[in-house]
Amino acid sequence: MAYEPVLLRHVGHPEVRTVAGYRERGGYRGLEQALTMEPDEVIEAVKDSGLRGRGGAGFPAGLKWSFIPKETDQPKYLVCNADESEPGTYKDRILMEEDPQQLIEGCAICCYAVSANTCYIYIRGEYVEQAEILEEAIRDAYQAGVLGDSVMGKGFKLDMYVHRGAGAYICGEETGMLESLEGKRGQPRIKPPFPAVVGAFGCPTVINNVETLCNVPHILERGADWFKQIGTDERNTGPKLYCVSGHVERPGTYEYPIGATLNQIIEGCGGMWRGRQLKAFIPGGASAPMLPAEFADTPLDFDNLAKAGSMLGSAAVVVMDDQTDLVRSVYRLAKFFNHESCGQCTPCREGTNWAELVLKKIVAGNGKPGDDELILRICRNMGGTTLCPLADAAVGPLRSLVQNFPDEVRAWLDSDGALTPARQYFSEGVTV
Ligand SMILES: Cc1cc2nc3c(=O)[nH]c(=O)nc-3n(C[C@H](O)[C@H](O)[C@H](O)COP(=O)(O)O)c2cc1C
Questions:
Q1: Does residue 291 register a pLDDT over 60?
Q2: 308, 355, 343, 324: which is closest to 426 by C-alpha?
Q3: Which domain holds residue 359?
Q4: Are residues 284 and 347 in the same domain?
Q5: Does pTM top 0.85 for this prediction?
Q6: Which of 209, 212, 339 has the most ligand 1 atoms within 8 A of CB, as the residue to mutate?
Q7: Which atom of ligand 1 is nearest to the CA of 170?
Q8: Do residues 184 and 175 make contact, with C-beta atoms less than 8 angstroms apart?
Q9: 77 and 122 fall within a common domain
Q10: CB of residue 92 inside a 6 A radius of ligand 1
Q11: What is the rounded average pLDDT for all residues in the chain?
């Protein structure tokens, strides 16, 4: 697919990590433009562009910014979500590594629009190198007058800090992140109140994903109409990063207009690994329900994936070939969710544990007819019953395994413990 990258246009140009290098390649024009506008006009432009959050839920960014109260003496904050802990997701990492000034510019525009004078970039603990790159880029932005007491000499004050997490999936959930930022255990808060009203340190706070914010300078520079032309329709607009892993020839982070299909993405990755056939794929990270190969021509955007019974999520596309054991794959994901459940809500704490145990029993060759129903029952007890969506995330792969791939599960359950050679291999080391 012929497409000129927007977000990844500076990949391979390390000179853009400095303000001077970034400006030389056209950077900071979006911020310059924003500073000539009223804050409300900036919010309107982002609203008009149709930009939806790239962190998982797809909430319209401009609308979120408009919820920040104007008539208040409280300080306001932007917290940039750079936790990126959804398995299979590594797009924000590339953005921070390859083009940190683009993120700083996006954050600065958002802060100006909502009158926030402080921005925290909350980055996952494992991203040591990326945190150092960002810190260096922020230092340079202060020296160049992009940050500090008067952003670009226009009198707007902005301070920016990198805050490192300690490596917990739940701290990617926005209110768990706020707790962690405040130095507490990263357990989600009850909503409402929403962070736009009561956020960091009890003050109005915008929380946006790295990729969401990286889109913002381009909207200001080139206009909402330009942005809207990219994508499937007016509800699914702009460039999108897809992190492709699994059975393709060249896994990696690829940029397309939002709504590229899996077939287009696989082609861009050099095809299926060793020319194998596609069996299934996860379109949006571990939480997104798995889809069968028939959906390979579905546009991978918010609405088309919802219609297909899955979600765009973090756009981590996991491609699984015809030799993949889906039950064992989902067992691995169940282990992840059990490990990462913060334990605050009983249905999630218990449910993720039960899901892991039942799947462990199955892949050890001890599954019984009816275990598929048991998995669905666990899903019913977890879904929609908790403070945050981690339980729903855990349900995604489980329910889609049983509902979309019933034969895969039954093949394990009907085996009566007699494992085929492939299953014997997969079961190695799994005991109950
Ligand atoms: C368990 C869990 C983990 C999450 N992890 C991340 C994450 O790593 N990065 C992210 O941007 N959003 C993550 N989210 C979504 C955030 O809660 C929030 O919706 C997002 O940061 C909002 O930004 P956006 O509107 O720009 O997408 C997670 C949500 C849940 C429930």
A1: yes
A2: 324
A3: 326-427
A4: no
A5: yes
A6: 209
A7: 1
A8: no
A9: yes
A10: no
A11: 95
- Asked if residue 340 has its Cβ within 6 Å of ligand 1, the reply is no
What is the tens place of the pLDDT at every residue in 3-49?
999 999 999 999 999 999 999 999 999 999 999 999 999 999 999 99
Residues 199 and 242 in one domain: no
Does 264 lie in the same domain as 391? no
Of the three residues 196, 229, 262, the one that is the final residue of a domain is 229
Digit-coded pLDDT (tens) for 238-274? 999 999 999 999 999 999 999 999 999 999 999 999 9
Minimum-distance ligand 1 atom for the alpha carbon of 212: 26
- Same domain for 126 and 247? no
Atom of ligand 1 nearest to the CA of 392: 31
* C-alpha 429, offset from chain centre: 32
**Paired residues of 122 in beta bridges:** 81, 163
Give the Å distances, CA to CA, from 204 to 41, 61, 195: 20, 15, 6
pLDDT at 167 (0 to 100): 87
Which run of H or E residues covers position 77? Answer: strand 77-82
Q: pLDDT tens, 133-162?
A: 999 999 999 999 999 999 999 999 999 999
Q: Which of 182, 213, 229 is the last residue of a domain?
A: 229
Phi and psi at residue 282, to the nearest 5°: -105, 120
CB-count exposure of residue 382 (10 Å: 0-12, 13-18, 19+): buried
| Tally of CA atoms within 13 A in the half-sphere of 100 that contains its CB | 24
